[in-house]
Amino acid sequence: MKSPYVNEVEPNRVITTSFLVHSKEIRQKKSGEMYLSLLLGDKTGELDAKMWDNVAEIVDGFDRDDFVKVKGIIQIFHNRPQLTIHKMRRMDSSEIEAADYFPCSRRDPGEMWSELRGIVSGIANRHLKRLLEALLDDPQIAERYRRAPAAKQIHHAYLGGLLEHVLSLCSLARVTAAHYGHIDYDLLLTGVVLHDIGKIHELNYERGFSYSNEGQLLGHIAIALRMVNEKLAGLPDFPLPLRSLVEHMILSHHGQLEFGSPKLPLFPEALLLHYIDDMDSKMECMRALIERDRQVDGCFTVYNAALERPALKVERYLAPPAAPASSTPPVPSATNGQPVRARERVVPEQPVVQAPAPVQPKLPALEPALAVHPLFAPRPSSAFGDKLKQALEPGAEAGESKQDG
User: Fold this and answer.
1) Is residue 390 scored above 70 in pLDDT?
2) Domains of the chain, residue spans
3) Which long-range contacts (CB under 8 A, 24 or more apart) does 341-349 make?
4) Residue 32: strand, helix, or coil
5) Domain 6-100 has what CATH class?
6) pTM for this model (two decimals)
7) What is the pLDDT of residues 323-342, one digit of tens each?
8) CB–CB of 73/80 below 8 Å?
9) CA 36, CA 245: separation in Å to the nearest integer?
10) pLDDT per residue as tens digits for the range 377-387
11) For residues 260-270, b (16+ Cβ closer than 10 Å) or e, as one string?
């Protein structure tokens, strides 16, 4: 078993482990030297990686979908872990356990397949039942249906994801058909089982997940129609109007022309198939986005182009990480050299000492000469001062006037 997995890496730690190369790009530094930008992965997620030095020695030694052994340090860049690679080499398939590198459904594929066959066996419409059994009885279809992912990246993008998605839709079909009494449950189930069956050939999933040549040229809707038509060739009594309804559900299940559907859903079962398919894929997309997000801080994930939004990590939002605890002094030892347990520590009672009242400092008394501001202090007497004082005294002006008169 490999260790650590992507979801176990810690910042500022040197790791030596193995990954599957999901993407490989050769880029150029400002200095003109080349460096490697990689997306590495295992069954728990993906990790951005950079190799800055000694690139010429390794660049031609591996490619996308190869397994590589790496040694490097985990650092935080733009709030996400990033691996700076110091050493790297390509691994042989004999060195790895495939289950460590490919995400897969938590459910057992054999158990899910048995559940799907049980659902199909309960369909009452004999024409629809025979069509589904003709497809699921085909050994090549059955083998790929059990293993295929439901998508390359967006939803249920893991081995067994298609089968898990279809079984989830079967449960939603049962609930919604019971709620809307006018729905033909057998027709809705047929659309559920067949709407994405073309993905077993649209995608490659032997190493990483990618589109096959057939998938690139045709897409899963056209491939599904071809598969259905091949089996209908062996069912000559299949009603033509019913055939058109089945084909229309496959053609219209994306719901909108801009989303890849050649036709809009034009009857209730086709419209309901689109909505439960859209709901299930979006709910799984958001679940996986939150579970695999590697943002170190904050309670929101990165922006998701398929959902056109980030997602809130509710658990972190409601219970944010606690602040680091402050260091506490060591617990002192008791007498006789025996340590005292924290809960048994007894602090001896200290006598209460009354603190003395603060003493205000005594300021020195001012000398009489300084008690009055110098500007207003009395001046020594003089002849001019005496005459000025007489002139300003009350009555002096009146007396002079009388003498003048």
Assistant:
1) no
2) 6-100, 109-292
3) none
4) coil
5) mainly beta
6) 0.71
7) 655 545 554 444 444 444 43
8) no
9) 51
10) 455 555 655 66
11) ebeeebeeebb
